[in-house]
Amino acid sequence: MKILLGEFIGTYLMLSLGLVTSVIINYFLFPNGQNRFLTGFYWGISILIPSLLTNFFFGTAEYNPVVSLTLAINHQINWLLMIGAIITQILGAWLASLTVKAVWSKWLASLPVNLNFYATVPRDVNNWRRNFRWEIIGTFLIIVNTEMQSNINAVWWIKTMFSSLLMMVIISIVAPITGAAFNPTRDLVPRFFFSRTYDKRLSQWQYAIVPFLGPIIGAVLGIIFTLLFNRLVYKS
Fold first, then answer.
1. Residue 19 half-sphere exposure, CB side, CA atoms within 13 Å?
2. What is the pLDDT of residues 32-62, one digit of tens each?
3. Are residues 182 and 99 in contact, defined by beta-carbon separation less than 8 angstroms?
């Protein structure tokens, strides 16, 4: 129960900080877009702050269903806890979407409704192959980092800061291309909220398969890579 509470709070804080910051920054930069480094920076901070808090108080800092799946496959958590973690991540993402709506009413009343303030929006929504490839690569790196953490002899907060810095770099690279989901919950829940609250026609549900399947495939490849890597290192 303690871990599940941490997952809920962490997911809510991560998405609220990231999405609300995006709303406010886009408001002040409108009609000019934000650059990739700014996006990577505030999302990195949005991941770092909740990770430090929930790791310290609840012993968890994984707010991604594919990471939860990875931990279950590696027997680091049981399958029942994995299901509970995913449910709490979904609930936290929904509450974060409500928070974005509250901020929207304050900051963006004069601007057009924009899916980008909720879900990930690629530079080219029709270039599925490229977008799919980058979602796989980004998630692959995240999973490999997660898997390798157990082999690193360092205090938890150093590992957390390194992971957040890595996310900052990956998001800075990939955000201008795909919107950088790497997390099905991060994209699908706010997208569903946007669809129900604003305009279903603007929700780009035909594209949602990319931020859903891309992270799953990236996670599977990451698990396979780390298993092979660890076996080779162990044998040598």
1. 34
2. 777 888 888 999 999 999 999 999 999 888 8
3. no
Determine phi and psi for 203, rounding to 5 degrees: -85, -10
Which two tokens mark 59? 């012993």
Quick one: which of 98, 89, 106, 78 has its CA closest to 50? 89
225 in Cβ contact with 144 (< 8 Å): yes
Peptide bond into 31 cis (omega under 30): yes
- The CA-atom distances, in angstroms, between 23 and each of 35, 46, 97, 192 are 14, 14, 12, 18
Residue in this structure with the two tokens 């408001």, named with its chain if needed: 27
Between CA 199 and CA 181 the distance in angstroms is 21
Buried b / exposed e across 116-155, counting CB within 10 Å, b at 16+?
ebbbbbbeeeeeeeebbbbbbbbbbbbbbbbbeeeeeeee
**The pTM is what?**
0.90
Determine the Cα–Cα distance for residues 117 and 21; give it in Å rounded to an integer. Answer: 9
Q: Are 85 and 62 in contact (CB under 8 A)?
A: yes
